[in-house]
Structure prediction request, 194 residues.
Amino acid sequence: MDMALVILSYLLGSIPFGLLIARCKGVKDIRSEGSGNIGATNVTRVIGKKIGALVLLLDGLKGATAILMAQHFAQEAITIFMCAALVILGHIFPIWLKFKGGKGVATTIAVLLMLSPLVGLLLVATWVVVYTLTKISSLSALVSVLLLPLYAFIFYEGGSLGFVYLCGFLTLTIFLTHHQNIKRLLKGEEKTVK
Prediction:
């Protein structure tokens, strides 16, 4: 049953809401518009804030649903952490889109809010502060996840190092998905989202 939960989490994460909703709004393939990403930031740039917010919500719900499912059925904490990792990896590497998906930020935030509300809220608060100061979504995400393992180590209520390891893995993953953004940030060419 535990392996089934992990696989199901990956498949749930693989649902490309940004692509599907953009298509419903008349954008044939969001991957050919803006930054070419299927996530909420690019949908916001191409279609608008309301649709971007909907994609953000749905991408977050994928993560929340996977954790609720894992917490209900899993026998061990390691399975819950694996489901957390796989729902995010499913979003980033969806099987339906030849493993080219979003950057995983919204799904990561939802997963963390479910596993540790305090750590999740600290991540969101960091994102909001950096975004308010810079209006750069990618920079906000990078600063937030850079601090994530520290937040997990200090504030995680469950006392499990497994959660800290998960957060370290998520930091590395989000940085890898933002490698092009990092290059643009270093060149001063990253776009703002207002």
Summary: The mean pLDDT is 91.
